[in-house]
Amino acid sequence: MPQPQITQSPASGAGYFFRGMSLAIQPGTRRFVIFPLFINILLFGSAFGFVLSQLGDWINGWIAALPSWLDWLSYLLWPLLAIATLVIFSYIFSTIANWIAAPFNGLLAEHLEAKLTGEPAPDTGLKDILKDLPRIMNREWMKLKYYLPKALGLLILLWIPAIGQTVGPVLWFLFSAWMMTIQYADYPFDNHKVPFPTMRDALKVKRGKSLSFGSLVMVFTMTPILNLFVMPIAVCGATAMWVDHYRDQHKLN
């Protein structure tokens, strides 16, 4: 029987992201990382390059649309709008990539959990993945329904002169960080059929840990080159966090 890995639990959620880096390259894990990594590289390599090439023109156009009495804000608004735009598009790209890679991310979380706990690895094949596909896609849809109304409210806020362009990017980042934690922590939770509201409430109990993990995922997702590798690392980090903090309470659900 495999022996569980004995490692000291990170003190913060951000620490679990860095732990995910080491877990993703370990023997026995790498083969489950390949497909999510390929999807992420394919999507971010093309889409993110386009956004970066257009970013300056977009922001200059938005600033030009502001009233003339707010011209003095342009130096402050440029970096804030750049961050807000990168956050929005990073989350959009990440969501699309996760929809495509969801079955394989779940498989990665499943096998990594077995490795971390010393339990026998599940014998999951293509037939099992296809059988679970409707449930997995329904779960992704639930996350999207949770995201859309809140994102719409924040998008409206961004168009409010002065207030929206200063407070809006900060709120966008925090909300996106929260959604990143929900996105990646959901794979191990869903493997154990934990309902989405139960998973969300469990993450809220440790909100600081959740936000620090999601914030680091968000920073890496916004960073060119690094964002190509973030998906499998985040899955591994979130799975380690599940094993250390949530599994004992929720694994029987």
How would you sum up the major sheet? none
The CA-CA distance between the termini, in Å, is 24 Å
**Can you tell me the residue ranges where pLDDT is under 50 for at least 5 consecutive residues?**
none
Number of domains: 1
Look at the structure and give the mean pLDDT.
81
In one word, what is the shape?
elongated
Element string (H = helix, E = strand): HHHHHHHHH
Proportion in helices: over 70%
Q: Hey, roughly how much beta strand do the residues contain?
A: under 5%
**What value does the Rg take, in angstroms?**
19 Å
Count of helical stretches: 9
Estimated structural class = mainly alpha
Family: Belongs to the CysZ family.
Transmembrane segments: 32-52, 72-93, 146-164, 210-243
GO molecular function: high-affinity sulfate:proton symporter activity
GO cellular component, one term: plasma membrane
